[in-house]
Amino acid sequence: MHDMMHGVLGLYNYWIVIILMMTGFYTVIARPNLVKKIIGLFIFQTSVFILFISMAKIEGGTAPIISEGARIYSNPLPHVLILTAIVVSLATTALALALVIRIREAYGTIDEDDIHVQDEAA
Amino acid sequence: MLSAHLPALQVIVPLVSAPVCLLLRNPRHAWAFALAVSWVTLAVAINLAVQVHASGTTSYALGAWAVPWGIEYRVDMASVLMILIITTIGAIVMPYSWRSIGHEIDKKHLQLFYTCYLLCLTGLLGIVVTGDAFNLFVFLEISSLSSYVLISLGSGRRALTAALQYLVMGTIGATFILIGIGLLYMMTGTLNMADLSQRLPVNADSRTIRVAFAFVTVGVSIKLALFPLHLWLPNAYTYAPSVVSAFIAATATKTGIYILLRFFFTVFGISFSFEAMHVGEILMLLASVAILVTSLVAVFQDNVKRMLAYSSIGHIGYMILGIGMATTAGVTAGMVHLFNHAIIKGSLFLAMGCIFLRLGSVELSDMHGIARQMPWTMAAFVTGGLSLIGIPLTAGFISKWYLVNAVLSIGYWPLAVLILVSSLLGLIYIWRVVETAYFQMPGYKIRKLSEAPAALLVPTWLLIGTNLYFGVNAGLVTDIAGQGAAVLIGQGVP
User: Fold this and answer.
1) B365-379, pLDDT tens digit by residue?
2) How many whole angstroms separate alpha carbon B125 and alpha carbon B301?
3) Nearest chain A CA: its distance from B169 CA (Å)
4) The predicted structure's pLDDT at residue B206
5) Position A65 in a domain
6) Fewer beta carbons within 10 Å, N or C terminal of chain B?
7) A78 CB near a chain B CB, below 8 Å?
8) Residue B59 bridge partners (DSSP)
């Protein structure tokens, strides 16, 4: 029992990743409001960043800067990868929001169902 | 001296050109610049192809950082096929773009359009040249983000919603790929594809690797619009500007298929992908459904661009069917069709662009008798259509011939019947256009139209000519595809 609890709780970073990922994914699928959809998409991407960052942690490891007394360092490579991925995600979000502004100008709404109704009517 | 840096130049030339293009204030200069860059990348691609053909797979350490710590660019025959597709289409579409896109968007913004086009070109070329899994993700996002912008430039507000829909699905797909790459890194500690393929077999029997495989497969399948993950594609192709439809239809989904090939055969290895994970059966099943269902749906479309989009999903099915067989003949057939479908669909979308320029619509109901006023455009469409169906002497026939042979060689004859049935469906949807354009009385509006300008017709017919040439002399394409397939399957020179 203790081992099982340790196994479940010891992997808490993965639980956070999974909960965030599913929250974001559900928001993308279920919300008709386009801005909320984009927020969901951003949360979804962020969960993956946490997955990468948490895999860089090494038990007892310190920040990857050479210093007196430190012998074990965290792996800096996932940090660097995620810096790139954050830039990508930022660009995606900015572009998506720009598109939403244009959609609102063209349709007068940011509700996916209303847009669908207008497209069908046209 | 320069020839040693060809793999890097292939990507860096369009990458560096993009911000330069942004600074050009005069739209005509921006166009001329983008045109020159497209031709330079084609020249680089041809040189690179000759080099790889002569001396085998080329590895290039970017910034001279030793592989596998630095990023490796790795060009083998499979990459060569893709580089040739992308740069050829780019070089042919660019001369066409001036009259076509100049008509569809404000001239003031043209330099932005060409900047996005160059970034898209960079991303697509980067994907096929790189040998690093994370680098591939970054290039994938460069090409995707710029193609969302390009699609959103279409006339009419539905282009905006189509672009956003593609953005949402594309980002989910790319994030899935990122998860897969992260899990692979977690298990192996490397991102270099060749290195991954060495280290994966040791860990192959773990759940993490299997999950990584699933994430990558689903993520890439969204990107390449594998049925039933194709929902973004019809709207994106229909509402994008004509030039963008032609360019994206001919290159973007093809690059997705290349990523799938790379991961299945190079990274995970054929025995893990097809024996342990049974992905071949799944792919062949989905491909068969795609071929049949989307050909049927295409028959009932009134917008010709939407019809071509559905037909594209069916043809992606053909390629996936070939790959799913995981035999040299199957993968060769898939890759031959990769090339042939790019030139066929490119030319069909270009022909539709000619019609859109003059008519302002590509709805069948507006196109009655248009062949009398625009004979050259419609002749191009019919020739491309025949190739799409797979009539002998066209490139499409070569693809179908290879595919049917590959299917028969493993004894799956019902699939050969399926291919024939869907070709008949292809005949029906192409015939609907022919019937409307040639055998209906033109209305008042149509009679005032004139033939498309030479600036549009020449590139369209150049692509049609390529199509007919490779229908008769298929040797070049089948050679490259065959060698590419051999390298992927692991029987060729490494």
Assistant:
1) 888 888 888 999 999
2) 33
3) 10
4) 87
5) no
6) N
7) yes
8) B74
Q: What is the model's pLDDT at position B354?
A: 92
Q: Name the residue among B427, B433, B281, B425 with its Cα closest to residue B364.
A: B433
How many Å lie between the alpha carbon of A1 and the closest alpha carbon of chain B? Answer: 23
Is there a contact between A96 and B172 if contact means CB atoms under 8 Å apart?
no
CB–CB of A92 and B171 under 8 A? yes
Is A92 inside any structural domain?
yes
Q: Please tell me the distance from the alpha carbon of residue A57 to that of residue A63, in angstroms, as a whole number.
A: 9
d(CA A43, CA A36): 11
**Residue B377 near residue B319, CB atoms below 8 Å:** no
Segments of B63-174 assigned E as strands: 72-75
3-state secondary structure of B310: helix
Please name the amino acid found at residue B51. Q
Q: Establish if A94 belongs to a structural domain.
A: yes
Q: Please tell me which of the candidates A45, A48, A92 has its beta carbon nearest to residue B167.
A: A92
Tell me the pTM.
0.94
A92 in contact with B, Cβ within 8 Å: yes
Containing B59, the helix (H) or strand (E) segment is: strand B58-61
Inter-chain CB proximity B164 and A52 less than 8 Å = no
pLDDT tens digits, B103-154: 888 888 888 999 999 999 999 999 999 999 999 999 999 999 999 999 999 8
Provide the pLDDT for residue B492: 43
Sign of CA dihedral B461, B463, B468, B469: positive
ipTM of the complex: 0.93
- Give tens-digit pLDDT for B429-454: 999 999 999 998 888 888 888 888 88
Phi and psi at B444, nearest 5°, equal: -60, -45
The residue ranges of chain B whose pLDDT is under 50 are 492-494
- Count up the domains in chain A and report the number: 1
pLDDT for B10 equals: 92
What tokens does B32 get?
Answer: 């001329």
Q: Is A54 a member of any domain?
A: yes
Determine contact: A50 vs chain B, CB below 8 A.
Answer: no
**Residue A35 belongs to a domain with what CATH number?**
1.10.287.3510
Structural domain boundaries, residue A76: 2-59+71-121
Per DSSP, chain B holds a count of helices (H) and strands (E) of 21, 2
- Asked whether the bond before B228 is cis by omega within 30 degrees of 0, the reply is yes
Share of chain A above pLDDT 90, in %: 55
Structure tokens given for B240:
């994008």
First-to-final CA distance of chain A: 62
Beta bridge partners of A33: A111
Residue A2 has pLDDT above 70, yes or no: no
Dist. CA B456–CA B22, nearest whole Å? 25
The pLDDT tens digits of the residues spanning B218-250 come to: 999 999 998 888 899 999 999 999 999 999 999
